[in-house]
Amino acid sequence: MKGRTIRMSAGAAAVALSFALAPIHARALETPRSCGSDPHIQCATYDPDQAYRVATMPGRAVMIQFEPGEHIINSGEGIGDGKAWHVAINDSGAMLKPGAPQPETNLLLVTNRRTYPLSLVDVSAVQPATWILRFDYPDTRAKAASAQLRRQEAVSAALGGQQGNGPAVPASIANSVGVAKSTPVASVPAANIQYMMRGDHALAPTALWDDGRFTYFKYSTARDLPTIFTKLPDGGEATANFHMEGDTVVVHEVSKSFVIRYGQSVLGIRNDGYSPDGHYNRAGSSVPGSARIARDHTDASTN
């Protein structure tokens, strides 16, 4: 661990010493609590207006640990009694070790995000000494919650208020296949249901449509699902990429022709409403119910 020993100017030492000698009237020192089963590993909730009591003991090192990405700035350390303490700075925080008996003093640490006023108190064997002190950061949690809310709002805006967990089903198809009234059904004016089939109709879906981005093969039956292929421009076939939504196979494309196969049975499907330009993908995502949002909708990490 690389570190640096604090060397303080006379002016900085005077400021730190005045802080140590000044009485604290407004608030008492906060004593960190144990984080878990080991009393030497302690935690505290960060408050910019609160000073913290750090229990020290001769011959025992103390680690003040910050959150990821937080570090002490240049000349951001100040200690009341620099001769009685060895302080080393690293990427995770500060490492302290007393170099004299009963070295009670105060320590100020200024990071790229916060200021930490600490009181280094000698406890001898009266109570467990602090070996590691970590902080919980309400401001970080608030920023994360705010960023998550903005992401959700951005996704909702991109999806245009779409609701329902399943694929949007045109009303004509919903009525023809007997969809229960309790099932969320959205009418999609742009849905295309102009499909012709030729071959083994035992492989035919109970409903078939596309929305300009995806093609939906609904199988409201108990029979095994066949394999769906898309017809390539050169006449070849390629297995269609898909995912399942309930009883509906959602193919991740719209094609002029599909071929459905199961064993030796074959069903050809022609899309008579095929539009090579498709529809504008407002959500920017290939997964229904999700949206791709710009990076500026999320908070970048503070350096």
UniProtKB/TrEMBL annotation:
> Which range is the signal sequence, renumbered to this chain?
1-28
Could you list this entry's UniProt keywords, alphabetically sorted: Signal
One Pfam family name is CagX
Q: From start to end residue, where is composition biased (Basic and acidic residues)?
A: 293-303
Q: Which Gene3D superfamilies match?
A: 2.60.40.2500
**Region annotation (Disordered) ranges:** 278-303
**Quick check: keyword Zinc-finger in the entry?**
no
The record's section on InterPro entries has: Conjugal_tfr_TrbG/VirB9/CagX, VirB9/CagX/TrbG_C, VirB9/CagX/TrbG_C_sf
- Give the record's family classification: Belongs to the TrbG/VirB9 family.
Q: What is this protein called?
A: Conjugal transfer protein TrbG
